[in-house]
Each structure stands twice: as C-alpha cells, then as structure tokens.
Write a structure and sequence with these properties.
Blueprint lengths: L6 H17 L8 E2 L21 E7 L5 H8 L2 H6 L3 E7 L2 H10 L4 E4 L1 H10 L5 E10 L1 E5 L14 E4 L5 H12 L14 E4 L5 H7 L4 E5 L2 H7 L3 E5 L10 E8 H6 L1 H20 L1 H16 L5 H9 L1 E3 L5 H14 L14 H9 L14
Length: 371
C-alpha cells in the first residue's frame, strides 16, 4: 500500500506510525482511585484552603520508585502542606494513562518516569506539562536466569522483558544492546536480543515459567525476580556518570501551574520535606511506603523483596535534567522518537524557591527550562 503514496505522505504516515506505541493508552483508563488510608492526615478543621481549591489531585504509580509519593501520602506530608485543601490520590499502572489523566484534568500533579514525560511534552508541542521537581534516581536492574545467562555477552540471543514498548526501561535496554553492537528492531523487539514487552505484574510469573530469560525492570519487580532465583547481572546506575540517573520526576499541567502556583509550591514543599524525612528515617520510611502499597493494592511486599529494592533507590529533589536529555537521545537513536524539542520542559522556579527556604542549592535544568 505504501508504494502508491506520494513520498511526502509516506513520510508523514511512517512518522505517525512510529509515534503510535508511545502514545497508546493502557486499558486501565485513568488509573484507580486510591483507597482511604486511616493513617493519612485528614484536613484540619478550619484550615485555610490554598488558592481557593477544594482539592489537589495527585497521581503516582504503585512502585517503590515512586516512594516519595507513597511516603508523602502515608505520613500526611501532602495534606499538611495543603492545609484546608484536600489531597486526593490516584494510582496508575502506566505512563500514558497518567499523561492522559493530566491532560484531561483528572489529576493536577503526578509522579512519573522520564519517557512518558518526554513523550507527553513533545506530542503536545510543548503545551501539556512541565517537570517541576525531582523525586528518585536508580532502582533499575537487569535480572537474569543464572542457568541460562552467566555473563553480559550471554544476553545475546535471549528473551529479555521490559515493562512496555517505548517506556524508560525499554529505551535503556535497546540503547545498551546497540552499544554491544547488537541489532534489534525497536518496534517488533526482534533481533540479536528478543525484547518481550511484559507488564511488571506479569513478569515474575513469566520468569518463573521460563518464557523469558531475564528482565530489565524497576524496583520492586527486580527484587521479586531475585526472590524467584534470578541474579542481578547489571545495575543500570553503573552505566551512568556518577552512577545516577532519573527514574521519577514530578509533573504538573501547565494550566494548573499557571492558575494555582501556591498549590504546586505546597506539593513541592511536601515532596522536599518527605525526601528529607526518608533520608533521616530510612527504616520508618521503607515501612511507610510498604504500608501505602498495601492500602493501594491490598498486598504489602515481603521483606526479602522490600529490603533490597528500597536500598537501591536514591530519593532526590534534583530532577537530574541532563540524564533525562540523554534518555531522550537514546530513544531517538533507537528509532522510537523523532528528534524532540525539550526546551521549556522544566520549570524549576517553585522548586528552587522551596529549596532556598530549606537552605539547599538550586536545581539545574540543563538548559531546558522555561525562558
């Protein structure tokens, strides 16, 4: 069919097709309403509303890499900062559905990974969102079946799972494979390595059954695989300068940021306060995150999964902008993204205000901030 199209139309169609996997929404709709948590601080009687808002809707994933949101919700940091404005929470399983929720106004602020943030920003022509703060770094590993893979070179020819086509870990695996000199078709996942896109909830069972040989996944999925007999073959942090790279940032819709800056500042203050508490009370924070996971999903993580997973995540207010820029270039190199224009994806004005008040240094936007 494509042979009958004029060259200009063919190029446009191919560009559109290449973008589809990054735009596809999951079947879970806009995510699930978080269940009531009796440990979460409720709105204090008589407390003043911020920006006149009845509520601020906050989205996050039920992953430990979103630990700031989990702990902040569980320990009441967000509610305390928002005063008389109710903090409401929504839990997501995938980045595209959270971006859609942000665009529709179903949430105002969200914790999210780099790839969906990049995609949401670029596909909207730079009009949908801003990254306003950092949250977490690291916490991603290549875990393999040691009976099938004993060294990095053994990965060639094997079946390796990632959470989703075009997601942050998918891009990382494709980029790493290319650096080994291996060829993989990004769309189909076929090549010198077979990339199997599998939901994190399914990956442990797929690993146990032998239908995959390993997985490039975030925590706690990585530690779940280790608990099933897997071996950590590679910690992604070792591939980055200073062994750090962004795994979770804070985004906000541009309209909400413009109309309700005080509310955004309050959430950022709560995030900074939460990260400070996490670092000061790591064991209590780990328990709080797990307690929130139990409320949201109905099941807490066992200690043999929780402990190593929590240890591998770094919580940070810095959005690590230079590493997000690098991840975007990796997606371009893999053929999953056209050359993106990321100028203006960051607005760290309110974060820097909060950090200054806390006696901390301002964050770097790597030249990608609003002018």
């Amino acid at each position: 069919m494509s042979a009958t199209l004029p060259p200009s139309r063919l190029r446009r169609r191919l560009t559109a097709l290449a973008a589809l996997p990054l735009l596809t929404l999951t079947a879970c709709g806009y995510g699930s309403q978080a269940k009531d948590d009796p440990a979460t601080q409720q709105v204090a009687a008589g407390a003043k509303k911020i920006d006149g808002l009845d509520s601020v809707k906050i989205g996050y994933f039920g992953n430990l890499t979103h630990g700031t949101a989990l702990v902040g919700a569980r320990k009441g940091f967000f509610q305390k900062a928002l005063g008389g404005t109710q903090a409401k929470y929504q839990v997501f399983n995938a980045g595209p559905s959270e971006i859609e929720a942000l665009n529709s106004g179903a949430i105002d602020i969200g914790w999210i990974g780099p790839s969906p943030a990049i995609n949401g920003y670029t596909q909207s022509g730079g009009k949908s969102l801003r990254i306003v703060g950092g949250s977490a770094a690291g916490g991603v590993k290549l875990v393999v079946n040691p009976k099938k893979i004993s060294s990095l070179k053994d990965v060639k020819g094997k079946k390796i799972a990632t959470p989703q086509l075009g997601n942050t870990q998918d891009v990382a695996l494709l980029n790493w494979a290319a650096e080994q000199g291996w060829k993989v078709d990004a769309q189909s996942g076929k090549g010198d390595v077979s990339v199997v896109r599998t939901d994190n909830k399914v990956t442990p069972d797929a690993f146990k059954s032998g239908s995959i040989d390993g997985a490039w996944v975030p925590e706690p999925t990585a530690s779940k695989l280790v608990a099933e007999g897997g071996k950590v073959l590679l910690d992604e942090s070792t591939l980055w300068p200073d062994h750090t790279f962004v795994i979770t940032n804070i985004i906000v819709s541009q309209s909400f940021l413009k109309e309700h800056p005080k509310a955004v500042e309050a959430v950022l203050k709560a995030s900074v306060d939460t990260n400070k508490w996490i670092k000061a009370q790591p064991d209590a924070a780990k328990k709080a995150a797990n307690d929130r996971l139990a409320v949201d999903s109905g099941k807490a993580l066992p200690a043999n999964v929780l402990d190593p997973a929590w240890k591998s995540i770094q919580f940070t207010d810095d959005p690590l902008a230079s590493t997000l820029d690098a991840q975007a270039r990796h997606a371009v190199k893999a053929g999953l993204l056209k050359n993106p224009r990321l100028d203006g994806i960051y607005d760290l004005t309110l974060l820097d205000k909060v950090l200054k008040a806390a006696g901390e240094s301002p964050a770097d936007d790597a030249g990608l901030g609003v002018k």
